[in-house]
Please model this.
Amino acid sequence: MTLNHESRKNWKKLYHPKCISRSDLFTSVASPILSVSEVNATVKDLVLKGLYNQTLKLYKEQLHPSVLLHASITVLPSVIKACTYAQNHHLGLQLHCVAVSTGSDLQPVVSNSLISMYAKFSNIDCARTLFAAMPQRDTITWNSMINCSIQNGYFAESLRIFKEMYVRGFVPKSELIASILSVCGKTKDLRLGREIHALVVIDGRIEDSAFLWTALVDLYMKCNDSLMALRVFDRMEDKNDVSWTSMVSGFAANGDYNNALYCFRAMQLEGIKPNRVTLIAILPVCAVLGSIKHGREIHGYAFRHGFNSEFRFSSALIHVYCKCGEGLRPAKIIFERSTGKDVVMWSSIIASYSQSRETAEEAIKHFHQMQMEGIQPNSVTVLAVVSACTNLSSVNHGRAIHCYILKSGLNSDLFLGNSLIDMYSKCGYLIDSQQIFKEMPVRDCISWSILISSQGLHGCGKEALQLFHEMQEHGVEPDAITYLAIISACNHAGLVEEGKKLFGRALKHNKMLLTIEHYACYIGLLGRAGKIDDACEVVSTMPMKPSTRIWSSLISACKVYERFEVAESLAHRLIKSDPENAANYTLLSMVYAESGVDLDGLPRSISPDWSIPSIKEGGPVRVTSGWKALKKTYASENYQFLSLAVDGNEKELPETVHFRDLSLKEPLFTRELFAHAMENSI
Model:
């Protein structure tokens, strides 16, 4: 049936997208009967322009009454696509029934559309059944089924189908190979990724593209093979912003922050402008490196190019300003100026407030304000609030957040469980922390380590040891953090022999790398027990340079057990290793003071300058640049003025300390002032 002029005019007004606005799509106008070719052309035109609801309206009014048009394999794929993007699951099932009843499902073009539809609807069982029943498959069929498996998280199945596809002689397109490489990266299957890399190089039928090589770079970065990723990247002829971003984000994810920053600079030198994703990837690098200079530069670049209004960028920028010690003022300004705040941005500002005790109350206030504005907190948000409660040592706030976690169904979250254990234990509620630990459905090494550490901090060394043994009985392998926690528990409880055994086990562990914190804790344990010689032997055999904390701990132990000769020798070694640190000289002076040595008889070679600086009588004592004087007299048990160096910076001691007449009976520089000066100079 053909259309007269008036009917065709009405039809154009009803369906043609150029003649009407989107709001007029469902106006009730009598629809004429169209020919097959006219309907096909109109459907394809509507789908091409993204007018999916209008396409379905046309199908219901024009195609449904005609059995002939149902079977048209030229129009059915377009209608199925419209149904897919319109999320009309019920109509999609009807279209599948129409295809089966008319035999159209045997055509690959129709079956491919149905597989893609079921992938979007997360109905992979129907897609599998349809794929298995297809008498013939083309490249698009295989692509559709592989993408269906990937979209629904069946990565192993997608890899199996890809192998079968290639064995049967089908040549995959570069986009499909990129998707498979992404799966290899997510599953850390480096072996298969290398095989696909070899396939790309050897098989000349595979189309070469920058998209494919970028996927290879991303694969090697995710599998922590930065060197291979760099080789692939260097051989790329066409490097775009996406490939550079893959390098930057890959280095950042692998903890190679300096190279990430180098790539970011090199990208701009090559004339490639960073995009929004690049900036979001490099900002955490600036936060870790403490480079506020680069953070500000990126902020300015984003402002000039209009990226600063993006939620994720603003969240990352808030993190940079807080992490780099700029305070909360810049972060607060960014947060308040953002128009549409999402849960990520709220989580960022709450996490920023949670970092210190002084601002932790603000974190809790923002948590409540966030809910009042209709934003539902996620597990990351709640984790930050629990951290705020921990810093406040506020068990009341902590219990309230704990109740929220239970009501929200987040109690199965492993990270939240660990943070609650930490919060209750640091607030002194060990029974509550143990109860949460028992109720956790899943426990990892961190869960055990936190509980062991909490027992140790409260002096419950034997209980900590029992937990350590239970942990191994449950099949959880202790890591370096666990050993640090249990050795620290032995240190606090004075369990010397147990601590020695545990440290020996940690040393023999092939896969464990002990840090200077482990050695400091163990040396402190030996020093407290009076085993000075054993502690000195550990110091001499350490694989790294002893820290000031280790020297100070050992010297303090020598003073307690009156091993003054050893203490003097260690103090001189400490001064030799760090001559600019005034606290080291203070420590030596205290050793001499307790051993009864007169400093007037000491050689001048101990320090670079023994001269006493001139200060105004009655003026405040200032800690001046460089080591100036270390002198003490014992006449009438009075202390003379002591000047300390603080890394070349002049600092003022409390105003209560003044230069006074030496005839005064009150000591000028008491042991407490020594400790204060040493604490402020480290």
User: Anything to note?
Assistant: Confidence is low (pLDDT under 50) at residues 1-30, 67-71, 603-682.
